[in-house]
Amino acid sequence: LFVLNKNDLWSALKEYPDARKLLIAKGREILRKDNLLDENAPEEQMSAEEIAENLQNSLRNVQIRFEGVKRINNPSDDHFYRMARFVAEFTSTKSKLLRRIEFLESQLNRYQLPSNDVPTNSNAVQSNELSEI
């Protein structure tokens, strides 16, 4: 036969909060059925250890949230490297596109005909291109 004293029971139930709530609810139900429950009594008194544990959990949650906010407000070096790489790629692509546009404009100007010299068929365009080369 194994017997638990009150302190041992509460220390064991501390590790199983769901079972503890169930046990307390069942005890209240039995006392209420026998009209032995004082309805004006406080629900449950927490021990100093439980209060300290709850406060530590709350503090951990606040610290985790604070770290997240701090990380958002103070971007890390990784963000700066990504932004610098993005700006460099953008500048490079922009200069390549500008060079390509200049090349295409020069090609367009090269093969453009004067306004009074409009060819009637494709042979005229080919002969004009050959004369420029």
Automatic annotation (TrEMBL):
<dbReference type="Pfam" id="PF16526">
    <property type="entry name" value="CLZ"/>
</dbReference>
<dbReference type="InterPro" id="IPR032406">
    <property type="entry name" value="CLZ_dom"/>
</dbReference>
<dbReference type="GO" id="GO:0005222">
    <property type="term" value="F:intracellularly cAMP-activated cation channel activity"/>
</dbReference>
<dbReference type="InterPro" id="IPR050866">
    <property type="entry name" value="CNG_cation_channel"/>
</dbReference>
<dbReference type="GO" id="GO:0017071">
    <property type="term" value="C:intracellular cyclic nucleotide activated cation channel complex"/>
</dbReference>
<feature type="coiled-coil region">
    <location>
        <begin position="45"/>
        <end position="107"/>
    </location>
</feature>
<feature type="region of interest" description="Disordered">
    <location>
        <begin position="114"/>
        <end position="133"/>
    </location>
</feature>
<keyword id="KW-0175">Coiled coil</keyword>
<protein>
    <submittedName>
        <fullName>Putative cyclic nucleotide-gated ion channel (inferred by orthology to a S. mansoni protein)</fullName>
    </submittedName>
</protein>
<dbReference type="GO" id="GO:0005223">
    <property type="term" value="F:intracellularly cGMP-activated cation channel activity"/>
</dbReference>
<dbReference type="GO" id="GO:0044877">
    <property type="term" value="F:protein-containing complex binding"/>
</dbReference>
<feature type="domain" description="Cyclic nucleotide-gated channel C-terminal leucine zipper">
    <location>
        <begin position="23"/>
        <end position="67"/>
    </location>
</feature>
<dbReference type="GO" id="GO:0005886">
    <property type="term" value="C:plasma membrane"/>
</dbReference>
<dbReference type="GO" id="GO:0030553">
    <property type="term" value="F:cGMP binding"/>
</dbReference>
